[in-house]
Design a protein that fits this description.
Elements lengths: L8 E4 L6 H31 L6 H18 L2 H7 L6 E3 H34 L4 H4 L2 H27 L8 E2 L6 H7 L4 H33 L5 H29 L9 H22 L2 H20 L1
Parallel strand pairs: 1-3
Antiparallel strand pairs: 1-2
Amino acid sequence: MWQNISVTEFILLGLAQEPMKKKMVFVIFSIFYVGTMIGNLLIIVTIKFSRTLQSPMYYFLFYLSLADSCFSTTTAPRLIVDSLSAQRTISYNECMTQVFALHLFGCMEIFVLILMAVDRYVAICKPLHYSTIMRRQVCTTLIILAWIGSFIHSIAQIILALRMPFCGPNLIDHYCCDLQPLLELACMDKYMINLLMVSNSGAICSSSFVILMISYIVILHSLRNHSAEGRKKALSTCTSHIIVVILFFGPCIFIYTRPPTTFPMDKMVTVFYTIGTPFLNPIIYTLRNAEVKNAMRKLWYIKITTESKR
């Protein structure tokens, strides 16, 4: 019989229990996190200081990289530290903060991906009106609305989490705090909370994915009227965006649009979209984008040249 006490801390089981596997987790995810931060910070600095990357597409890419950096930081550092810790505890307040941050930056990434799709739609389908529609003031307003929408979503999620009573046990079979693993420990009827979670996070993920796929189908269909060179450039950009969308939304839909049950692969699926996707995004956007690569070369060439003259 569980004691009816208030839980003040949780124990995160993490990804591995054996000492050797824990060391592997430490090494692998340290590399992933450092790579994520370096890659996204390079994009942020390049877009910020490059004169050639001032279009709305790169304005949104700046915020995608910012969201990626913050999104990965909500889970990766604790996973890395916990992999070498004997006592992997997280306080109730820290757990709730992680839930809030996870959904804030995750939702921001979703909204920025939608804005990038809108930008590509206007640029390819309405090129003559592009400069009028996608003005800097409009882009700034859209980003502000994205932050507000993400904040509202996170508030809704944290309210659900705070309403869950925990009377024991406090062992979370995961490496981070989120509504699904916390729901397993809640001393209450889980049906209504899960229904609210699916109607919030699940609906946002599913509807956003459908909207994005439809928008890119329309964009790709409209490319038949463009020149061969214009088609090639637009296809390269859109392909990068589609890859990012599939990599991010596939795992999200799997986690947030199902009954309140857990599966053995849940932790690895969560790893993929919270740590893997932020790591892959800079690679996808730089390797497939000549403008970003050229801007990086010029920016760092100027930096090195300036330093050598001092």
